[in-house]
From TrEMBL:
GO terms for biological process: thiamine biosynthetic process. This is ABC transporter substrate-binding protein. It comes from the Bacteria. Residues 50-254 form the SsuA/THI5-like domain. InterPro entries: NMT1/THI5, SsuA/THI5.
Length: 344
């Protein structure tokens, strides 16, 4: 198995080749009469999008009158490009890239917090002398892609430590999973900022890893569901229906009695990821943990976005230079308006 799943990320519509220069606000793609929609995600791991595949397998989307197709493309920026160009009606970008897009005038809005606990972590080999992020000064840090959400996550940690990218450390895009393992083995990188799926795959490939993420940064939430406001206006029933199916999928997967069924649904979405059942089972448990709100917010329901967490991510982006200046209205970036209905 290579990469996260052994499946090449698909690039549709020439999005990756177009690059940032083509990042323009497009007319939202209208949903056809049969309610077919495209859901763009930044990596092909089915277990990373657990509630989606469970909702597909259990027929929850069908019950909502939706016929979704998942498209896995390279990173959050490509997801946002797909949404902005109308090639995807809904997507799963990271909060950092969403802040950047909003600052550039893209009318994107975060509607569902899929990973209320950080999906990313800073990893080093078990035998590494590095015990904390402060010791990464002067080193090369591996990341999956140059513009992935893991970059803004790591920048926030190192900026708080007074470090500047390009001066005190550098990022090296080394891919994910298997290719990241090669970079570790060749000592091209001394650490890696990766998602839970990367951590599980690296461990499965024989690398014993140790996490050095400071505890407070585990509260930086990860990717979630986003739509353009123009798309939300054009298809006002899409967000309520899509999120309701996701919450049902999450509740189903969280019941230990449904463990094997949830694994089977994810294997249907990505057969190669499901080949190693022990690996897949471990990743499923990690995903459920990261997708379950903390005790402080569990009463709000799945998908809830704590305003204070958004403020923390926003302030870190400003401090690191990822945002040139603070957003005038941070509340315009996200909404919790659908959460109560999804969880009812």
């Amino acid at each position: 198995m290579t990469g996260r799943t052994g499946i090449s990320r698909r690039v549709f519509g020439g999005l990756a080749a177009a690059g940032a220069a083509s990042f323009v606000i497009g007319r939202p793609g209208l949903i056809r009469a049969q309610t077919a929609i495209t859901f763009a995600v930044p990596n092909p791991s089915a277990l990373t999008w657990l509630p989606y595949w469970v909702a597909v397998g259990e027929g929850y989307f069908g019950e909502e009158g939706l016929e979704p197709t998942l498209e896995a493309i390279d990173g959050s920026s490509a997801v946002l490009q797909a949404m902005a160009s109308g090639q995807a009606q809904i997507g799963a970008p990271g909060p950092g890239p969403v802040l950047g897009a909003r600052a550039r005038g893209v009318d994107v809005k975060f509607i569902y917090n899929l990973f209320p606990k950080s999906v990313f972590g800073l990893l080093v080999k078990e035998e590494s002398p590095v015990q904390s992020p402060a010791e990464l000064k002067g080193t090369v840090i591996g990341v999956g892609t140059a513009d992935g959400a893991e970059v803004s996550f790591t920048k926030a940690i190192l900026t708080d430590l007074g470090m500047v990218e390009g001066t005190d450390y550098t990022f090296l895009p080394v891919g994910d999973g298997g290719t990241a393992a090669v970079a570790f083995l060749r000592d091209e990188v001394g650490s890696y900022a990766g998602a839970i799926s990367d951590s599980a795959i690296l461990s499965a490939r024989g690398l014993t890893l140790r996490e050095i993420t400071p505890e407070k940064y585990l509260g930086f939430f990860g990717n979630g569901i986003a739509m353009l406001e123009s798309q939300m206006a054009a298809t006002p029933d899409l967000a309520p229906k899509f999120g309701r199916a996701l919450v049902r999928g999450m509740k189903f997967a969280s019941d230990p009695a449904n463990h094997d069924a949830a694994l089977a649904h994810c294997a249907a979405g990505n057969p190669q990821e499901g080949e190693d059942k022990a690996f897949a089972s471990g990743l499923l448990k990690l995903a459920i943990d990261r997708m379950t709100p903390t005790e402080a917010f569990i009463a709000e329901g799945y998908g809830y976005q704590p305003p204070e967490h958004w403020q923390m991510i926003h302030d870190a982006a400003v401090a690191s230079g990822a945002l040139e200046q603070p957003l005038e209205d941070l509340s315009s970036v996200y909404t919790n308006e659908f959460v109560a209905g999804w969880n009812a």
